[in-house]
Design a protein that fits this description.
Two copies of one chain form a homodimer. Chain A is an alpha/beta fold. Chain A has three domains: about 60 residues, lambda repressor-like DNA-binding domains (434 Repressor (Amino-terminal Domain), Orthogonal Bundle), CATH 1.10.260; about 130 residues, Response regulator (Rossmann fold), CATH 3.40.50; about 130 residues, 3-Layer(aba) Sandwich (Rossmann fold). The first copy, chain A, is about 45% helix and about 15% strand. In chain A, strands 2-1-3-4-5-11 form a six-stranded parallel beta sheet, sandwiched between helices. In chain A, strand 1, helix 5 and strand 2 form a beta-alpha-beta unit. In chain A, helix 8 packs across helix 9. At the A-B interface, helix 4, helix 5, strand 2, helix 6 and helix 7 of A face helix 4, helix 5, strand 2, helix 6 and helix 7 of B. Strand 2 of chain A pairs antiparallel with strand 2 of chain B. Chain A binds a DNA duplex through helix 2 and helix 4. Chains A, B: InterPro entries: HTH_LacI, LacI/GalR-like_sensor, Lambda_DNA-bd_dom_sf, Peripla_BP_I. Chains A, B: This is Transcriptional regulator, LacI family. Chains A, B: It comes from Tistlia consotensis USBA 355.
DNA sequence: TCCGATGATGAAAGCGCTATCATCCGCTAC
DNA sequence: GTAGCGGATGATAGCGCTTTCATCATCGGA
């Protein structure tokens, strides 16, 4: 291949080459280049090879913006998570990203900061970019979202919950069933006064559901639930530390702490270590999420394993299936959970 | 506003409205709509108001793909991180995302899995989407990347390191200086045989640099560095646990473990707890990163605080400045680090 | 009274691709 | 021999916007 200087078909100096430049260089029409790149089987091997060579010589990079406009599909999926500073959602994003990447799709990511209005505006922005699909976290959205999505006509997957009225598809699990199961486990293991540690009422949809499950486990057995110890910030161990202190002061004595997530549980366990409180001897601690560190804490954290990465992967696959024109059945996938009993309860 | 049925200027049924539909409805030309939306100050208040009303009535969402093609700017920034399953990079992405969001930019995210070829192909894909800027992690890239970026002519920020030959701009810190400072601290505090726990040689750029700093701190004082305890996976506490076991078996006795990151350090501390090894009495443990949990471990983790979120924010701001046509000086920003001494060393 | 500013609006020309339809060739089938 | 067909290629028309340039009032100053 000639390295020296631009030839006839070469791109004008200083401009990034376009498909027409490649075409000229390869001595074919623009359409043929488009086909050679997009549907190579429609082009003869020699032509394809000439095009490939021209692409390489010019360093041509197809403009996917133009392609998207012409084909009205972007191969972009938008995802909104409450926060990235949290390994749980990060795992989902990672799973999603990998599935999409393998299919040549790209991920447009936004974080809502647990604010449904920001979620709404991010979703709108993604749709404005003509994302082919959307992945959302949770079931609580602005009322207007439904209309915006319907108007755009793109497939959507909600994750991390099992909404009563899904927008479209769901890849999630039941937070209340999981919390109920965890609570039932604690009761079965002999704990009698189980406090729930989490956000106040209405603080956040998933925390609320978990609290509901905890309450129901008691109700189903005719027991009265223990106290709800409210924390301000569910994403810091500090809340767990404070909760332990409060729990120890309560009478009748609380013998187990069910934390709305593992970060809080870690705070509680650490506070116990510092205060010399035996876990689970004096007080048991259970978490929710089963983060990486759960088995490594001392004592190992009893918790609920949730399908973080799988939700992302499944959401991605559902979207891709739908975009490929395949029917997605069922539209609501419950990825389940698992009670993981370690030493802390 | 009339709810009932489409009117003259309304969009054809079943199609999503375009700018022309809005224009017809508002009784102005398409250009005016474009201006009313993009540069409202160029349009009279009444007209602007008519357009706004028409937009609302039709539920019009501008097509940013078309806009991008026409204006040749996408307001999209692409970012590549090694992994999201790691709170360190997640913090950077979060910081970046927030800065971009506030400026009306969107984030296209990819994870390379610590593979430079995947980084390269992601970067190329982002450039194909005509991202206005790129944020990369680290300084080790495929050779071809430089040319691809130069060809696209977009601003780039490298993060998490201080590359010797930056691609363009940098928002990072010196891993070797930080590791050297941490090691110097350990030496100052009286530890004499400090093992480094991290990936094997050449495993990863940042781990290598940290090891280099550890070695240099010794060399500068005419001391011989302790052993390098290699682990397979630096992102799991398991490596730290294994490392502790190996360290305890060494003679002469290792009295401090300097782990290439906090996750490994956590593994080591936990292993000590389990084995009843006093920290720092028998062996001190230092980490790198200062993740959320560091102050909450028992004992609190002595570590290096790195500017995770700030690198993301700074990278975002540098990009935005450059895109706004402002000069960015200096192009290499060292965000520094901080030695945080807690109880573990 | 006329003129160049100034402000508000519009018409037309693309941005760089893909979709669609047309063309052309060589081949098989009768 | 020729109709018919599939494979390979090309010409053309947009995709829905922004940009640029043109138009046309309106207005204060000479």
């Amino acid at each position: 291949m000639s390295e020296d200087g631009r030839q006839d078909g070469g791109a004008r100096r200083g401009r990034r080459p376009r498909m027409a430049d490649v075409a000229a260089r390869a001595g074919v029409s623009l359409v043929t280049v488009s086909r050679a790149l997009g549907q190579p089987q429609l082009v003869s091997p020699e032509t394809r090879q000439r095009v490939t060579a021209a692409v390489a010589e010019l360093g041509y990079l197809p403009d996917l913006v133009a392609g998207s406009l012409a084909s009205s599909q972007t191969r972009i999926v938008g995802a909104v998570v409450p926060t990235l500073a949290n390994s749980f959602f990060a795992a989902s994003v990672q799973g999603l990203s990998e599935v999409l990447d393998a299919a040549g799709y790209q991920l447009l990511l936004g974080n809502s900061g647990y604010d449904t209005r920001r979620e709404q505006s991010l979703a709108a922005a993604f749709l404005g970019r003509r994302a082919d699909g959307l992945v959302l976290t949770g079931s609580r959205h602005e009322a207007a979202l439904r209309g915006v999505i319907a108007g755009a006509g793109v497939p959507v997957v909600e994750t991390w919950e099992l909404p009563a009225e899904p927008l479209d598809m769901v890849a999630g699990f039941s937070n209340d069933a999981a919390a109920e199961a965890m609570t039932a486990g604690l009761l079965d293991w002999g704990y009698r006064r189980i406090a729930f540690v989490g956000l106040p009422d209405g603080g956040e949809s998933r925390s609320d559901q978990r609290r509901k499950g905890w309450r129901r486990a008691h109700a189903d057995r005719g027991l009265e639930a223990g106290p709800h110890i409210a924390v301000e910030d569910a994403n810091s161990p500090v809340g767990g530390e404070a909760a332990l202190e409060r729990a120890l002061a309560l009478a009748p004595a609380v013998d187990a702490l069910f934390c709305a997530n593992d970060t809080l549980a870690l705070g509680a366990i650490v506070a116990c270590q510092k205060a010399g409180v035996a876990v689970p001897g004096r007080i048991a601690v259970a978490g929710f999420g089963d983060f990486d560190l759960a088995p490594h804490l001392v004592p190992g954290l009893t918790t609920v394993r949730v399908p973080g990465g799988e939700m992302g992967e499944t959401a991605g696959r559902m979207l891709l299936d739908r975009l490929a024109g395949r029917r997605v059945e069922p539209r609501v996938v419950d990825l389940g959970f698992e009670i993981v009993r370690r030493a802390s309860a």
